[in-house]
């Protein structure tokens, strides 16, 4: 039986291959719906500061969402990847303030706010490759957002991952450093996790399906 890290790697490869099959048209349509659903989240409604990210490649698109939040007057923080894979942060001031960085990323060109700036966010939108019925998330493997979630431990910030519907699965492999998120938004809907939510970390009746199979899509927002 392979260890958890190897299981994650295999699942990552499979999910990235699936994203590659998306046509630009499908990706654009998904991004438009995702932005609308995310903007409807009550968790974002009262947020003065939101930490987000600039989608790249076939990631669920965030550009329209960033612009809508910025236009609302929300302070939007974007990650800057550091050499050790930790994340610094900078403010989003519009697309003209983004610069190309390594790994195909787009990052804010302005002042760096430090790794702890994410703790000023009322809501944190996270990239990922999958989330499971407990709210456990799997990312690209750099551990960048594991560190963000560790920094947010005990804070009230809403932690929301943005995915495609098929990336909400029954179980992802979990390691001791992993932390759950509160919700996932996909073009199909919103699903929340947590105490009192069926299938959440402390909720009753968490399904124990064998790893990786998609579960039913989230219900309407
Ligand atoms: N949009 C975005 N920004 C992010 C992340 C992310 O997952 N997505 N990160 C999450 O931690 C951090 C950067 N970590 C990253 C780690 C690996 C790759 C990566 O594998 N890139 C591909 C090319 C991109 C693509 O076309 O999919 C590569 O290098 O081959 C990208 C970002 C911070 N910013
Ligand atoms: N709090 C932390 N501080 C430093 N390193 C960490 C922390 N949490 C996890 N890591 C390291 O990050 C590496 C990748 O972890 P994992 O495979 O869970 O990443 P991931 O969740 O897929 O990626 P990401 O968080 O970037 O989306 C592991 O080697 C792990 O030891």
UniProtKB/TrEMBL annotation:
Catalytic activity: (6S)-5-formyl-5,6,7,8-tetrahydrofolate + ATP = (6R)-5,10-methenyltetrahydrofolate + ADP + phosphate
Matching InterPro entries: FTHF_cligase, FTHF_cligase-like_sf, NagB/RpiA_transferase-like
Matches recorded under SUPFAM superfamilies: NagB/RpiA/CoA transferase-like (SSF100950)
Pfam families associated with the record: 5-FTHF_cyc-lig
GO molecular function: 5-formyltetrahydrofolate cyclo-ligase activity
Keywords: ATP-binding, Ligase, Magnesium, Metal-binding, Nucleotide-binding
Cofactor requirement: Mg(2+)
Keyword S-adenosyl-L-methionine: no
First-tier enzyme category under EC: ligase
Region described as Disordered: spans on this chain: 192-221
Coiled coil: none
Catalytic activity, EC: 6.3.3.2
Matches recorded under PANTHER family: 5-FORMYLTETRAHYDROFOLATE CYCLO-LIGASE, ATPASE INHIBITOR/5-FORMYLTETRAHYDROFOLATE CYCLO-LIGASE
Family: Belongs to the 5-formyltetrahydrofolate cyclo-ligase family.
Protein name, per record: 5-formyltetrahydrofolate cyclo-ligase
Species, as recorded: Streptomyces cremeus
